[in-house]
Amino acid sequence: MTTVKEAIEKMIQSRNVDTGRVSGLSRQIIAQMNTLQTSILINFENLPGISSSGESQLNLYLQAGAKEDLRAVLREGIAKQPSLRMTINSAYRTVAQQHILYQTYRREPKLIPLAAKPGNSNHEDGLAIDVSNYNAWKPYLLAHGWQWQGSRDPVHFFNNSGRDDVSNLGVKAFQSLWNKYNPTDKMTVDGNFGEQTAAKMDRCPIAGFALVTLFQLGDTGSVITRIQQSLTNIGFPTPVNGVFDQKTQAAVIKFQINKGLTADGDVGSMTLKTLGIRL
User: Fold this and answer.
1) Please, are residues 276 and 226 in contact by the beta-carbon 8 Å criterion?
2) Among 60, 52, 53, 57, which Cα is nearest to 22's?
């Protein structure tokens, strides 16, 4: 199970940033957003005249008003130039994808020269698109409520036909999704992408949540108590206090070495199974 943090490390090492690596997690976040706010994001890939690479990082979603403005753009453009197609290389960006860009930007600005903090990009509001053949479509976009970012980002257009707080909803969707699959390690659902939320994001599986939980240094709760008690019972003593501290981590590593498991000090599905713990 590759985590978001591990994926970021691999991207930096390979010098190849691909936000499509978290496509599974992104799909879950989008679904959760539409659960929190019915139909806040609407797929637009069926609009006539849309062309895309089909790459995994593309989430062809917009807010309803922006989609209708885009429909008008496509209708006029194709009426005047029947063979014209709009090539989209970016649309809605989930908080998981923005996290990858922002963390890479902070560590390796030569790879990503500029990236907004998660929760602050208008791509996260479902009001922005990046158009590869922007010169052909710019007149039509400007005529139908889309604004141009300018020469510093010429492919980027954004629209005001919708709510401007959807990026916060995206953060809330992630936070509530995390809480759903990590009931013993919940966080506040406040729409603020702070240090706690970033740390949880790093621990997420890039393929999306399953009923598998990872416990590690700093975690607390009843499951930690069970882990500590199990370790102590089978000869790897550690204080049973419900806090995954350094003593607990050391005991976990000794146990993992003894059982031939990956000795990383984290308690994932295999370590839980070997300890005889079912969640």
Assistant:
1) no
2) 57
What are the residue ranges of helices labelled H in 154-234? 166-181, 195-203, 222-233
- Asked if 108 and 14 touch (Cβ cutoff 8 Å), the reply is no
Question: Torsion angle, CA of 206/211/216/218, rounded to 10 degrees?
Answer: 100
Q: Can you tell me the distance from the alpha carbon of 104 to that of 11, in angstroms, rounded to the nearest whole number?
A: 8
Topology, domain 4-166: Muramoyl-pentapeptide Carboxypeptidase; domain 2 (3.30.1380)
DSSP 115: -
30-39, 212-221, 263-272 — most confident range? 30-39
Q: Which two tokens stand for residue 156?
A: 């980027």
pLDDT (average), residues 236-258: 95
pLDDT (average), residues 207-215: 74
List, in order, residues 6 or more apart from 106 with CB less than 8 Å away: none
Report pLDDT for 183.
77
Q: What is the Cα–Cα distance from 123 to 170, expressed in whole angstroms?
A: 11
247 has pLDDT over 90: yes
Contacts of residue 179, Cβ cutoff 8 Å, sequence gap at least 6: 186, 187, 189
Distance separating alpha carbons of residues 103 and 273, to the nearest angstrom: 33
Task: Answer whether residue 211 shows pLDDT above 60.
Answer: no
Q: Is the pLDDT of residue 238 over 70?
A: yes
Q: Where are the domains of the chain?
A: 4-166, 222-275
**DSSP conformation letters of 1-42:** --BHHHHHHHHHHHT---GGGGHHHHHHHHHHHHHHSTTSSE
Mean pLDDT computed over 113-131: 92
pLDDT-based confidence at residue 54 (cuts at 50, 70, 90): low
